[in-house]
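2024-03-11 09:14:02 INFO receiving multi-entity request
2024-03-11 09:14:02 INFO entity count = two
2024-03-11 09:14:03 INFO echoing inputs for audit
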Amino acid sequence: MTRQPLALTINGEIHDVMIEPHWSLLHVLRHELGLTGTKENCLEAECGVCTVLLDGKAVNSCILLAEQARGRSIVTIEGLGDPEHLHPLQAAFIEHGAVQCGYCIPGMILSAKSFLDERPGRVPSEAEVREALSGTLCRCTGYQKIVDAVIAAARQMSARPEAARRAP
Amino acid sequence: MSARPHRVAGKRLKRIDGLGKVTGKYVYASDFALPGMLFGKILRSDEAHARIVRLDVSRALALPGVRTVLTAKDIAPIRFGTAIRDRTVFAAEVVRFRGEAIAAVAATSLEIAEAAVRAIEVEYEPLPAVFDIEEALKPGAPLVHPGWSDYQALPVFDREGNVSGRSAMAGGDVEAGFAQSYRVYEHHFTTQPVHPGYTEPRTAIASWDGNGDVSVWCNTQLPFDMKNLLAEVLDLPASKVRVVVPGIGGGFGGKLRVGVEHIAAWLARRSNRPVKVMTTSEEELTDAYPRQPTVITLKTGVSEDGLLLAREARVLLDCGAYANSGPATAAIALQIVAGPYRTPNFSYESVAIYTNKGATGSFRAPAGPMGNFAVESQIDLIADDLGIDPLELRLRNVYREGDKGPAGDVLTSVSIEDSLRRAADAIGWKDRRPGPGRGKGLACSWWLTTGGSSGVYVKINPDGTVTVVSGAVELGSGAMTGAAQILAEELGVDLTDITATDVDTNLSPYDYGAQGSRTAFSVGNACIAAAKDLRRQIAELVAPIWGVAPETIRLEDKGVTSGNNRLSLAEVAALSQRTGGGLISHGTSIQPMPVFDPTRVKNHPLPAWTSHSFHTHAVDLSVDEVTGEVSINRYVVAQDVGFAINPTYIEGQIEGGVAQGIGQALSEEIVYDGGRVSNANLTDYKMPTMMDMPRVECILIEKPSVNGPYGAKGVGEPPCIQPPAAIANAIAAATGVRIQALPITAEKIALARAQDED
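2024-03-11 09:21:47 INFO inference complete, emitting structure
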């Protein structure tokens, strides 16, 4: 199949790739660019481990064509914060014991970021968090500590918005 | 046990692998890649039981980009299996379930490999199939393995025809017990197959080097078992096989046995290129290691005041087309149907049975939820019939310290009464039916901490940090963080000073593996042994320099002290490197096996449990009057953990285990339509989401075990055992409807209610 050029803006950097038109964004991230922080499981938008941000909104990268991301801004877990400068969500997930095997965690954190960014300055209720993040399956935690971490991060982000803004 | 208060162990510290996991830098097996890697794909059977009359791979081989196509005739004809060597890498002449591997392709892209698999031509001649375990036991039933008697098998199991294993336990005189009983109850229960549901698919990348050695990077829970298995099916000495586990995205017992590792290794061998194979959700739900479905019959005799006098139990367990851990799981079911109850007269039998469905395995607490659903549902049925409160009935019958288990082994550190009372208090048991459509239920159980040996190498580095090299995989439970907390405690360092390496069977010391609630327990004990040896090494090095007795040397606050003398641990490690090759020790542990009465046991590989734990779940739920939908208001777990090494991650184990148990109770089922799985995707296989889960209130009881590190007991498996029974009991309290077949869907409740009203 003929490959076509595509420029993708990922974590603030432009990546020029040659893609086949039917490739998913997930495929390009993991297999072409080596950005394996975005995880792969069901490939039909049921489990949520492949979640990335597209123009700030959480999307399942397994069912999004890479072509659909042309000209838009993509954020993956690698772009959220590094070990020295964690995003408040990343710090809260560790602090609250919300991480076990960790395979769903990149998707879970990015879904949470998308959700919290839609309502800046507001601390969501537990029910709101559960509804917003119910698209990502976690089999380790029973979700409770994830909910606690998201609410704690929301509290911190509303009190200190600059901590969250450092990341893209 | 240490006399002084703990500094690191017992604290809610952050896990040692957290940073990599929240930043996407932690490498899982599925993230792993090698230069020049090919992609493997598997052709699977469309028939449940059939002879392969034609298998033509020529069209697949002709596709550009296809490097290798393998079928049974292309590889060594070796049978393997956990209990019985009944399976081959590819089905040879006969397929025994729909989804069984027949061939595999390695190609330059996954898409080409998929196209090649579609291009393989197969013709089948269907054979009579059997899907139901009771049918499979009948004379004249189709045999899943007509050649069963020629298979090599562990001698412990009693096998015949479709019976892959039969086990029994008996004590007292069960007929006399029934004769003495005030009432005798008999009930039947059925449970469904459920998938472990790990989020990372099973993955393997295999690569052969110039010496004919193979390395396999994969997400197995048992790297040393995997090494031996691969050596067998590749017909190689074990020394030629190396297994590495970079990171693993959940396992829950579903990654104990070979998944795609053997196929990746064969494809890589034949194609002379590294090959990666990763399962899809469809493959996971058709050919993995789900929990076995069961049919359980319980007959229980009681005195007028509710004392259990006699019990007979029969557990039929559907192991699918290949036995794997089915016979052992059936055997463990005997301890589960005994329950944590004194029963003077008993006769328990279990039978693992072949059918033409997918193979099964050791999902978290194998046999636990099935047997417990039966026992704890029946206890409530008996309590209601006798007019005794279900909590009170349990308290009259549970084990006390020093009682004997079903195998005649003496039970120590028994805490079941405490867990029952605390869970009941927390849920507000006195008000068991707080309103219309609302009810509370209880279920209690016991479980073991699996034995097996562990080894660790512990190095103290010249910067004062500590490296643990273990053969145990961090599944995600935090077990290796727990073991590291114990090590930090013993060495006088902080948890943040410790790093644990990935498992590499060429480098790591042996470990029995991440299974059976044993990792923190056994690796923790090995760390204590390693620390003891390091203290000896350090004392021998430093005491002569200071002119003090070796016994006066202490490890504390990242240093070595004796009286007013002090060196930092970093200085001592550097000194050792200059003079003695560095500070490194090999610590090992093994759990002693309890004494039991062999006359009570037949064909059981694990008759007496080690370092048992006791636990009670209590639930408060509401049932929608019209739809039958269940919503959980509160969920309480009181679990004896012996010593809570890290309460945060113990809660994590409990919360996650309860979620899996709620899934089994209410929504999950691999649905078979004959031999075909009709819901092999994550839309129709319904695992609990964040919206389905209640908060779980954890009560950690700490009654120390004799053998665990600081008294710890195994934690990981128990939390998924009781949810089905506790929920069934609460639904019965709320609605008067008693469902004896899992899962308890809203539809079943609504239908049963409608029938009640008729």
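2024-03-11 09:21:48 INFO post-check: The beta strands of chain A are 4-10, 13-19, 51-54, 57-60, 73-75.
2024-03-11 09:21:48 INFO post-check: The domain at 88-165 of chain A is CATH 1.10.150.120 (DNA polymerase; domain 1).
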